[in-house]
Each structure stands twice: as structure tokens, then as C-alpha cells.
Fold:
Amino acid sequence: MASNVNPTVRRRRLGQELRRLRELKGMTAEEVAERLLVSQSKISRLENGRRSISQRDVRDLCGVYEVEDSRIVESLMQMAKDSRQQGWWHAFGDIPYSVYIGLETDAESLRVYEPQIITGLLQTRAYAEAIVQGGSPESTEQENDRRVEVRLRWQSRITADTDPLRLWVVLDEASLHRVVGSRQVMREQLEHVMELSQLPHITVQVLPFEVGAHAGINGQYSILEFADAADSSVVYIEGVTSDLYLEKPHDVQKYTVMYEHLRAQSLNVEQSRQLVERLAKDYAR
Structure:
């Protein structure tokens, strides 16, 4: 088991602090890159927390920024050391969405809009297996099994006895009608959604077909929020070959407003449960 230090969050916080030091110095990322004889993209990746950062990188950057307080330098060096530790998910090998898992592991709350499938945190094993196999037809059975195990381990955030992740999910009605695996798998899956939705920290709403065009028409996204004020909210958009992380306040605000519209357009909690229950019974026939 890995340390309880979250390397993804450590990298992110370290990157934010390095960006702050650069801006205080009045330097651009391009100017810093020229001084250190590295690419501008490396500086950008270090600052956005998407790249592992070494203690040597921190030392060199502090030198460029003329940081004279040894306590600040030592603190940043320790953060760099912590950021190179491995989270629990690394034990499963190369996972495409490992950065997202790291962020979610430290998040306080999560808002998700899912138009196509039941979102990962609410999936049963059988449903997850069918989704992973269907979505990765060229992957080996071993690779798919590993992804399923990560997904199931990942769900511990919403079932934890202390400080569980606060989750709000808007599911498009299409995700309830798409038969993944089999009708039995779907019945069990919808029953699982109903069971989890009874938990006080989990809210599930369904966006019905009759709404027509809506605020989430462009696709799936998630909004992660953190307890530490130093960690800004993140909008996560999953892609096929790469994922998108939006952290600028303007972007986060835009998606937050969109999510409020989605919640308003959806069935209320009780109506959503009734629809899920009715469809679960239909699958049992």
C-alpha cells in the first residue's frame, strides 16, 4: 500500500506555488525555459501538475526566481519528494485516467453529468466488466480485468465510513435504456443505483428524454471540488486518447452554471428514483 500522501495533489499544489513565484518575479514561462535551457512546454507541465517534478527542478527554478528563504526552498523540495511517491492506483500498472483518480481521491465533492452510461462510481462489477470490454475491444483480457479492479477499488470513496466523497450525479435517461451486458445486468445495475441513492451524501437525478436540447448536449464532464482552499476546482472531460483538465476560474464557472441548468431540467430526486425503479422492474420481465 502506498503512503497516504497523494502524489497527484502534491504535484498540483507544487505547480501552483511555482507559478506564483514565477509571476511574482514577473517572468513568462518562455523566459524561464530560456534561462534553464528547457522547453516552454516542460515549464507549463510542471506548473499544471501534469508532470512529475524532481528536487533538482525545484532547486533550479528557485534559483531563477531568486528565492532566498531557505525554509521555502526546503518546503518545496519536500513537496517534490512527496509528489514522486506512488498512489494506490499505480499498483495496477499503467491506467489511462490515473491523474483523474489522484484528483478524485483527494476531492471533497464531485458533480457528474453522464449522457451515455451509468457513471463509474455507481457501477456494479458485471456492468463495469461489460463497459470496459465494449469500450476497449483491442485490449487484452488482462488489461481489461485490471481496469475493472481499479474502478471497483476507486468506488471506496463513496462508501467510506468517514468523510465519504459527496457525489451528485445527473444521468441522461439514455443511460438507463442502453442495455449493457444483458437485461439481468441492467436490472442489478439500476437496483444498485437506487440503493446508493439512499445514502445521504449521494444524489442522483435523471435528465428525461422530453427535455430535448439541454445544457449538457456537448457531452460528459465532471466538476471536482476540494476542501483545501489552496486547491482550485477542476473540470474533467474524458477523451479517447487524452483527457482535458480545466482549472481557470472562468472555465470552471461556465461548467458550474451549465450543471445548475442540468439539475433544474432534470427530474427531482424522488421522480428520478421512481423512473429508475420502474425500468429495473421492466428489465426483470
Summary: Residues 53 and 80 are 6 Å apart (CA to CA). The chain has a mean pLDDT of 86. The first strand starts at residue 109 and ends at 114.
